[in-house]
Amino acid sequence: MLSIDRSIVDAIVAHARRDHPDEACGVVAGPVGSDTPTRHIPMENAARSMTFYEFDSMEHLRVWREMDDRDEEPVVIYHSHTATEAYPSRTDISFAGEPGAHYLLVSTREPDTEEIRSFRIVDGVVTEEPVRILDAGVDPHAVQSYMFGQSPATVDYECSGR
Amino acid sequence: MAIEVRIPTILRSYTGGAKVVEGSGDTLNDLLTDLDSRHAGLRGRLVTEADALHRFVNVYVNDEDVRFLGALDAKLNDGDSVTILPAVAGGAFGFAAAAAMAQHVAAAPADGRTRVTAS
User: Fold this and answer.
1) Coiled-coil segments, which residues (chain B) (predicted)?
2) What is the predicted pLDDT for the residue at A150?
3) N or C: which end of chain A has fewer CB within 10 A?
């Protein structure tokens, strides 16, 4: 399960909307071993493409070193699909090189709703996991979740199981 | 002095969990051969059968991407620091396109100077 603050999700969605129809990408860093995403780092899509994304190699080095210096790791690696569902493509799977990260996908194909889903990708195997969105600003115990692009509604959600 | 090599999480199974290892060599190619003698299999994760740097990794010498330094022919000196990172890339690109890209990588010149860029 990925637990993530609503303000970070909102910032990721805003980034994806801003770069639409190109794919947007980035990282959310967190303290090593915490599994808690705390610091949102929007990255440049060096491919500037509607169907492909790639971190700029120099920005990648700089951001990874900075995380190292701060005892952080990439807890979430996100990107958007702008015309298809928020599910990892073959390309996503073949590139996935951070076995400890939550791979968060946002689909911006619908103008009014976002589809936000999270996956583990280890050795080419994709496992979907629930996303728990924490509304820290309102009540730390209040939990809402997105499911398949609908408005937040339920307290917890099961993944689709595919 | 030796060359310090920073190993990403996904490749630490080859280094007994070590985050940093040391090696030697006049070029990146020599260094990877040297590392492979102690960490068998590591080189194969970084270099394709066509002797080009793999599309799925970024390798840096100090602060430079080796793709701009001659790739596997990049010159190294004692005291250099080499960093390996898994490339972060992907996208809605379909399977056929990914397969075509893999072929393109396999067909790249042996000196590895050609960098595949998707558009």
Assistant:
1) none
2) 46
3) C
Mean pLDDT of chain A: 87
CATH top-level class of A2-144: alpha beta
Size of interface A-B (CB pairs under 8 A): 109
pLDDT at B55: 86
pLDDT of residue B94: 55
Residues contacting A59, CB < 8 A, separation 6+:
A43, A44
Which of chain B's residues have a Cβ under 8 Å away from the Cβ of A47?
Answer: 89, 91, 117-119
CB-based contact A54 B60, cutoff 8 Å = no
Q: Is the pLDDT of residue B32 over 90?
A: yes
Q: How many residues does chain B have?
A: 119
Q: What is the ipTM of this complex?
A: 0.79
Lowest-pLDDT range of A46-55, A88-97, B63-72, B91-100: B91-100
Residue B22's domain comprises 3-106
Instruction: With beta carbons under 8 A apart, name residues in chain B contacting A58.
Output: 65
What's at A73, amino acid-wise? E
Partner-chain contact B88 A95, CB within 8 Å: yes
